[in-house]
Amino acid sequence: xxxxxKTENITKVYGQHKVVNRVxxxxxxxxxxxxxxKNGAGKTTFMRMVAGLAAPTEGTMELFGxxxxxxxxxRIGTLIENPGVYANMTARENLEVIRKNFGITEKxxxxxxxxxxxxxxxxxxxxxxxxxxxxxxLGIAISLFCNPDFLILDEPINGLxxxxxxxxxxxxxxxxxxxxxxxxxxxxxxxxxxxIATHYGIIREGVLVEEFPASDLEDRCRRCHKLIxxxxxxxxxxxxxxxxxxxxxxxxxxxxxxxDHFETMEQINREFILNGVxxxxxxxxxxxxxxxxxxxLGGGVND
Length: 303
Known about the structure:
14 strands, Alpha-Beta Plaits, Rossmann fold, single chain, alpha/beta
């Protein structure tokens, strides 16, 4: 399996605080990897380490299957935090600066990039007068000028209006599908992220707690009778051998999800209690994407 990014136990410590704690991430070639976490969870710090803007305290990293990171980072485009643009210049003038810095002799490259990101009609309008969405598209244009194979975007749709969000979403899908660019993107707008992501990574307090393909989401969010118990093994045995219920799973220790027999919830609870299983919680659960992620994150995304 070919990975564009693979990390093992990447850690970043500032003072006594582990901002990123032993993160092992796997971003497949061609993926749009949605990186989700609360503010301060470590997303930006992790992205900065991948881009070479910060050095890990511990851990190892591979880019495109290689540990020659500086060489491979030439294949990465980044938009981390605010776009680095000249506010008193036009979009064209900004891209001309980038073209010359990269030593690209073909002047048509600027026109092509403006057309690609939908900024060809901005003419003499200065960047300081751009909408937030236009500024983000210009930032993405700058990150694309090195013709990257891997694009790292930190909150590119944060603060945008619905039209701006739609424009960025369509642009990212175009980059992924037409140019084959792998994308690592963080966002708080989970509903929008679900429209483009092929894989997800969930970070909480610096720890990558989940990593899974988008194809798993329907199963993870489907309706179930959820029980929080003190003895998972005994509870599973009761379901199978006493109640003859097999359509359940154990997503983690202490949690059981039963996917049918909703009409027998009282019977299930009673059998558990009679057979020595302490039930801490018992309820019907069926979440949308945001509800599922909030549960993993331990509350609201922006708490």
